[in-house]
Amino acid sequence: MNDVRVIEVKENILADNDKEAQILRDKLKSKKTFLMNLMSSPGSGKTTTLLRTVEQLKDKIKIGIMEADIDSDVDTKTMAGAGVKSIQLHTGGMCHLDAAMTEQGLNELNYDGLDLVVLENVGNLICPAEFDTGAAKNVMILSVPEGHDKPLKYPLMFSKVDALIISKIDVAPYFDFDMDKLREYVLKLNKNVKIFPISAKTGEGVEEWCQWLLDEVNAHNK
């Protein structure tokens, strides 16, 4: 009877990616470019939130956007209309970006001189949480319609982020969404996370979120 060998491929892939991510992070630090990895599920208001962020910050810092999608350029056209440098990254069916793919995108963007580059990652709450992109900060958007129980279902994602944006708070009265419960669930997983409830539609909370991001960019790029 032949012996059966089990090879932990995923573990090796993640270890190699972590090394590449740290090299990229050090390189971006030396070039004074802050990379933010923005993650969420589809329909969370990610692109709209990003538009409001760009509106607030584009006169203060130089911004570039990398829009990742399986096969679409809709979001890139939207961001280009906002007056910032942007490119589309097609993942060829993959549900995440890793460090090598991110660096390839950065090179295509030609990020020299950019203070902030936002990587709008592929829309889901599983795969992107597993792969380090080399970002200085990881940020997630959770929309009110998705429910306050998402940290219980996707704990890895919530444990990995530095900031959590709660979007679409203007529709909270129409949904069974408990902000206190959400905070409780999230802080059990990640006691250091910053939480920003916002409405891109009304503008509520956007200034506080943008000020945090601006402070992080300036501190990183000193």
UniProtKB/TrEMBL annotation:
A GO molecular-function annotation: GTPase activity
All residue ranges annotated as the CobW/HypB/UreG nucleotide-binding domain in the record: 37-196
Domain of life according to the entry: Bacteria
CDD domains on file: HypB (cd05390)
Gene3D superfamilies: P-loop containing nucleotide triphosphate hydrolases
GO biological process per UniProt: protein maturation
Entry annotated with the keyword Zinc: yes
Record bears the keyword S-adenosyl-L-methionine: no
NCBIfam families for this protein: hypB
Family that this chain belongs to: Belongs to the SIMIBI class G3E GTPase family. HypB/HupM subfamily.
Protein name, entry field: Hydrogenase nickel incorporation protein HypB
Taxonomic source organism: Treponema bryantii
